[in-house]
Amino acid sequence: MSERSAHWDKVYATKGEAEVSWFQDSPSISLEMIRAAGADHGAAIIDVGGGASRLVDALLRDGYRELTVLDLSTNALDAAKRRLGAAASMVDWIVADATTWRPAKAYDVWHDRAAFHFLTDPRDRAAYVERLRLAVALHGHVIIATFAPDGPEKCSGLPVQRHDSASLAAELGPGFELVETRSETHHTPWNATQAFQFSRFQRRS
Ligand SMILES: C[S@@+](CC[C@H](N)C(=O)[O-])C[C@H]1O[C@@H](n2cnc3c(N)ncnc32)[C@H](O)[C@@H]1O
Which domains does the chain have, with CATH numbers? Predict the structure, then answer.
């Protein structure tokens, strides 16, 4: 097991869903951006670094049927599966590191909230983008939410790389066009605030 997955497995083994700073009862901006991408209910959507997020529950409720959640922590995905019960069988669950994963199919929507920003080494970011380019269909959408430039410098005890839409555009390269960007002040379960940015890109080439 890598140091990275050991860290995250320990977090999910020792903390409840609402004891982590990134918990959201309702992932409303993610949902709005996925809907704005115009994906129909048969579109292939992947939540990268999805952890135990409730996004997959909300997407199932909305009627989306081709859902994948990828995370390097087995414990995180197990928590999401337990919460979903029988509906978990409608989702593809992938335990993998986003920087080394080999996608087996094309996705219409790639969503990542608060995983990419842990990649502080430019080589890891380049490896992530290489996987993303293998996975995202032409005209597909990429939604990446990270701490904003005025957001925290750490999360879960780990340093993060903060971003805005311009730095994300530079990471993704010229084949991806910025379609929309939004700011969010996230309230942690203990009511601290964290500045996030959400950016949506469309693949043009
Ligand atoms: C701050 S949590 C956010 C979880 C979820 N996206 C949410 O919004 O609730 C970061 C998640 O990214 C996962 N993660 C971190 N680095 C990763 C990587 N290189 N590949 C896949 N998952 C990763 C962690 O296991 C964790 O579940």
Answer: 3-203 (3.40.50.150)
